[in-house]
C-alpha cells in the first residue's frame, strides 16, 4: 500500500488512460478481483466474465473497454493485466534507499564497487570482484574471485556466485541459488570415477531472473550461458555448457543436462527433463513432466516421456485411459474363442444323427475285428 491515498485520476495519468466514472475516488490498495474491497483497484482479465466482474466489490477496475454492466469506476487500458503490473511497480512498491556498505561485510583486494551499492552484513567479496552501480547484495551473499556483477541487480540472501562468473545488468537472483558450481563430469578409470576439472565459466546476460535454489553449473571448458530476458523458476538445474536462449521460461524443477541448447522464447513446463546434447528450436514448447531425448524443431510442442508431438501424445493418452476396458474386452474375446473351439461343429452333429452314418460306423467296426486264427497243422514227428 502507499503512504497516502491515490485517486483513480492519478492512476489513469500514470497509465496515459481515461477514466469512466469518478476520477477522485481514493485508492489505497490493489487486490485480486474476488478479494478487492471498496478502496481497492483490480483488473478484468480477458477470460473473466462480466458476471464475475459484477460480483466484485472493487472500487475501480482496469478494463480493456467500457462495461455498461458495471457501476464502479473503470480505467480503460489496452492490456489490463499489464497495466496492473505497471501500477503496482510505479505506485505501490516502496523504494528501498541505498543501504551503503556494511562494516560487517568482508572485502578482498582490488574490489570495485559502483555508486549507490548496498552491501549488507556478512557479504563476502573475494579478490578482484566488481559490483555495478545500484546493485544490492543481501546478507550471506558470496562472490568469488574475479566475478563481475552489473548494475541495478538484486542478489538475495545466501546466493553463491563462484569465481570467474559474469552477471549482467538488472539481474535478480533469489535466495539459495548457486552460480558456477562444478559441472557433473567424471571419467571411468580402473572401475573408479575420476573427476574432470571444470575450468569454464557462466555468463548470465541482462534482465534475467533466477528463482530460489537454482543451480547453474560452470562449463567444463568454455561457458554456460543464460541469455537476455530469460526467467527461471525455483529448483531448476542447468548443467555444464548449456546455452539457454533469450526470453525463455523454465518452470520449477526443470532439469537440463550438459551441452543442450534452447532457442529464443522457448517454454519448458515444470519437472520436464532435457537430455544432454539436445537442441530445442525457437518458440518451441516442452510440456510439464516431459522427457526429452531428441531435438525439437522450431515452434513444435512436445509432451510425454519419451516426448512425442503433443497431438500424438493426446491420442496415446486417450487410448491409455481406455486400457482397463480394452483388457476386459480382450478377455471376453479369449473366452468366446475357447468356448467355440470346444463346441462341436454343426457338420459333425448332423453326421452323427444321419442313419447312413450309423451303418457306415457299424461296418467299420465289423471290418476292424480281427479274423479268426487258423491253426497250423501239426507235422507228426518221425519215429526213429
Entry summary:
The protein is α/β, with parallel strands linked by helices and 384 residues long. It has seven helices and 40 strands.
Description:
The chain is an alpha/beta fold. The chain is built from 7 helices and 40 strands. It has 2 domains: 6-92, MurE/MurF, N-terminal domain (Udp-n-acetylmuramoylalanyl-d-glutamate--2,6- Diaminopimelate Ligase, Chain: A, domain 1); 100-314, UDP N-Acetylglucosamine Acyltransferase, domain 1, CATH 2.160.10.10. The chain is flat. It has a 12-stranded mixed sheet, with helices on one face. Strands 9-12-15-18-21-26-29-32-35-38 form a 10-stranded parallel sheet, with no helix packed on it. Helices cover 21% and strands 26% of the residues. The longest helix has 20 residues, at 323-342.
CATH class of the largest domain: Mainly Beta
Shape descriptor: flat
Mean pLDDT level: 91
Estimate nothing, just give the exact number of structural domains: 2
Q: Helix/strand/pairing class, anyone? A: alpha/beta
Summary tags:
384 residues, single chain, 10-stranded parallel beta sheet, alpha/beta, Udp-n-acetylmuramoylalanyl-d-glutamate--2,6- Diaminopimelate Ligase, Chain: A, domain 1, UDP N-Acetylglucosamine Acyltransferase, domain 1
Amino acid at each position: 500500500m502507499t503512504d497516502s491515498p491515490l485517486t483513480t485520476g492519478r492512476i489513469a495519468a500514470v497509465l496515459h488512460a481515461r477514466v469512466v466514472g469518478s476520477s477522485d475516488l481514493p485508492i489505497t490498495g490493489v487486490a485480486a478481483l474476488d478479494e478487492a474491497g471498496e478502496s481497492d483497484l483490480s483488473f478484468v482479465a480477458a477470460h473473466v466474465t462480466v458476471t464475475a466482474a459484477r460480483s466484485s466489490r472493487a472500487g475501480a477496475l482496469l478494463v480493456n473497454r467500457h462495461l455498461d454492466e458495471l457501476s464502479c469506476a473503470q480505467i480503460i487500458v489496452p492490456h489490463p493485466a499489464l497495466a496492473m503490473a505497471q501500477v503496482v511497480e510505479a505506485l505501490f512498491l516502496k523504494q528501498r534507499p541505498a543501504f551503503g556498505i556494511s562494516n560487517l561485510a568482508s572485502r578482498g583486494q582490488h574490489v570495485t564497487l559502483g555508486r549507490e551499492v548496498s552491501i549488507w552484513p556478512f557479504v563476502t567479496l573475494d579478490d578482484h570482484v566488481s559490483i555495478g552501480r545500484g546493485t544490492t547484495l543481501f546478507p550471506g551473499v558470496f562472490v568469488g574471485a574475479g566475478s563481475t556483477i552489473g548494475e541495478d541487480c538484486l542478489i538475495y540472501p545466501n546466493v553463491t556466485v563462484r569465481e570467474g562468473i559474469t552477471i549482467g545488468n538488472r539481474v535478480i537472483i533469489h535466495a539459495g541459488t548457486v552460480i558456477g558450481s562444478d559441472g557433473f563430469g567424471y571419467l571411468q578409470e580402473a572401475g573408479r570415477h575420476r573427476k574432470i576439472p571444470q575450468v569454464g565459466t557462466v555468463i548470465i546476460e541482462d534482465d534475467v531472473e533466477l528463482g530460489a535454489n537454482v543451480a547453474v553449473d560452470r562449463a567444463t571448458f568454455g561457458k554456460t550461458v543464460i541469455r537476455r530476458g530469460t526467467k527461471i523458476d525455483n529448483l531448476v538445474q542447468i548443467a555444464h555448457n548449456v546455452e539457454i536462449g533469450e526470453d525463455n521460461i523454465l518452470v520449477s524443477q526443470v532439469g537440463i543436462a550438459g551441452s543442450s541448447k534452447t532457442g529464443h522464447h522457448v517454454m519448458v513446463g515444470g519437472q520436464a527433463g532435457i537430455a544432454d546434447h539436445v537442441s530445442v528450436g525457437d518458440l518451441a514448447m516442452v510440456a510439464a513432466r516431459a522427457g526429452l531425448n531428441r531435438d525439437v524443431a522450431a515452434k513444435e510442442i512436445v509432451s510425454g516421456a519419451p516426448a512425442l508431438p503433443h497431438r500424438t501424445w493426446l491420442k496415446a493418452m486417450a487410448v491409455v485411459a481406455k486400457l482397463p476396458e480394452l483388457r476386459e474386452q480382450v478377455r471376453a474375446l479369449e473366452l468366446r474363442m475357447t468356448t467355440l473351439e470346444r463346441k462341436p461343429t454343426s457338420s459333425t452333429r448332423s453326421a452323427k444323427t444321419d442313419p447312413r452314418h450309423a451303418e457306415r460306423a457299424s461296418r467299420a467296426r465289423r471290418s476292424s475285428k480281427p479274423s479268426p486264427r487258423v491253426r497250423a497243422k501239426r507235422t507228426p514227428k518221425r519215429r526213429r
